[in-house]
Amino acid sequence: MVAAALTVTDDQRAELARIAGASVLPHRQVVQARALLWAVDGVANEEIARRSGVDSDTVRRWRNRFVDKGIGGVGTIAKGRGRKSWLPQDTVQRVVELTLTGQPPSGATHWTTRTLAAAVGVGKDTVAQIWADHQLQPWRVDAFKVSNDPEFEQKLVDVVGVYLKPPARAVVFSFDEKTQCQAYPG
What is the CATH number of domain 10-73? Predict the structure, then answer.
């Protein structure tokens, strides 16, 4: 029995064509969109499976998911499918929690993949992947860092004082080292 052609709206067909022709979307999504376009054109599931390099049951699942979820279901992995994590349940949560709130050992300013991996008991690449999955970048600081110099406050007052009230007939210059910039006399 040959499945009936998949019924889609003009907008859905245009979106499937856009996805099928994309070069930057995930391969799975492009293949499924292409297969669904063939289904719209009335191509048999077995032929779609042959062209896509999958079995006909997979094509049927793609068609059913499209009917249920529309364009949003194209390229998604069904719940319960795919590679299962080998990490214990709480490891990811522990890594995220330590990254955001924990103090690194030996007075370091932030965690590195190696120090956090040693603290949690996983590999550095695992920590790096968890950070990437959660968009964590502990080496980036969005706040002003205050020095731990005991005389910092007095030095700060002195420097700011020179800017706010420079000595009479004095010129104040400020120099800041930029390691990636080279100044050329013009």
Answer: 1.10.10
